[in-house]
Amino acid sequence: MKTPSHENRLGVEPIIPLLIKLSIPSIISMTVQALYNIVDSIYVGRLSTDALSALSLAFPLQMILIAIAVGTGTGASSLISRLLGRGNKKRASNSAEHVLLLSLVYGLIIGLIGFFFSENLIGLFTNNEVLIDLGTRYIRIIMVGSIFLFIPMLSNNILRGEGNTFVPMISMLIGSIINIILDPLLIFGIGFFPKMGVEGAALATIIARAISGSYIVYMVFTNDKDIRINLKDFKLDLSIIGAIYQVGLPAMIMQFLASFMIGGLNIIVGSYNEYAIAVVGIYFRLQSFVFMPVFGLNQGYMPIVGYNYGFNKPNRMKETIKYGLIIGFSFTTLGFILFQLFPEGLIKMFNSDPELIEIGVHALKNISLAFPIIGLAIVGSTTFQAVGKGFASMILSFLRQIILLLPIAYFLAKIGQLNLIWYAFPISEVVSFMILIIWSKKIFTRIFDDMRTRQQ
Q: What crossing angle do the helices spanning 238-270 and 49-85 adopt, rounded to 10°?
């Protein structure tokens, strides 16, 4: 019996084993990456609460870099999986070549902006000179070295588009583990390493990304499966870039909205005190530990949905969607339980200041009330992207993070105390989830009807 090729296993292997096989590597690597983000902040929190607050102010700027990488990578992964589903390996490979070019362009532009304008950017969020100084020293290194973010993230998505999640897992593990090792050495000056404080945290990140990036680029260029990189014959094709951003631009804008939302939230809670700014940063790092496994699930989930959509297999699509929703719900429900039962212990990992703990406990318990449905919402949004309907995901994200969350948070800040602000999160999530259900039913009813018509 002939073993299914790497190309067609997305369309023939049993869904649950295939989803597990493709998702587990990404779930592991993204969980480790989330753990790095937490450990990074724990070390910085040992310096001072000001250092922790400075990282919170820099976080929206980091989110912009991630937005560019995630948007481009999502569009590339979706396009490559759909092209492979149609048997067009040559154009899929050419799409990968365009992605590598884009990573270089973005790295150059962001590096120049970071070198000259980091202080101005941090100054948008606070007038505190200490926080501006600490935040600038951190984000300048991150932005100047951003090419080492773009290359590994986008290269990972090239391989995920063909259903290869193992190599991206190794790449992310390499980067995260090196980062975790270097953090205390460079932050506190252990051994022969210099004591660099927040700058050490940034430099550790850049070094780790450079090493993991070197590995993943090597693997992309030596790939012997569906995607074959051949830069000698490369020709710029704007239609490929357009196809990448047909799905990728909405995903990018969704991440931009997250950056805008966090920046706006920092300004709102910062009107109370700087501890609240630190709590926002702590929450989003802890949140990543809950949500990153769902995003890891999506790295295996999206190629299966996209391939079977391109190959016109509605039943496999439905089965994949069902199991994806169940797993996503399970992950975030566990996060809800964790945040409700152990909020004080989670905050104490970063800093033991009594005021920070008091504010943080209320924040974690109130914000996490909607965690169970967020897993469903993340998988639902990814499903839109997998079938080339990224615009719907963008609109839902805009609704949740900007139209609902920030105005509700601002309103609650005006009528009540700081603790009331945190309820803006579950309120906005519930409303947007109800809209997601209605919109999903409308769009996917039409999609599945069209697919069944093509089968006849």
A: 150
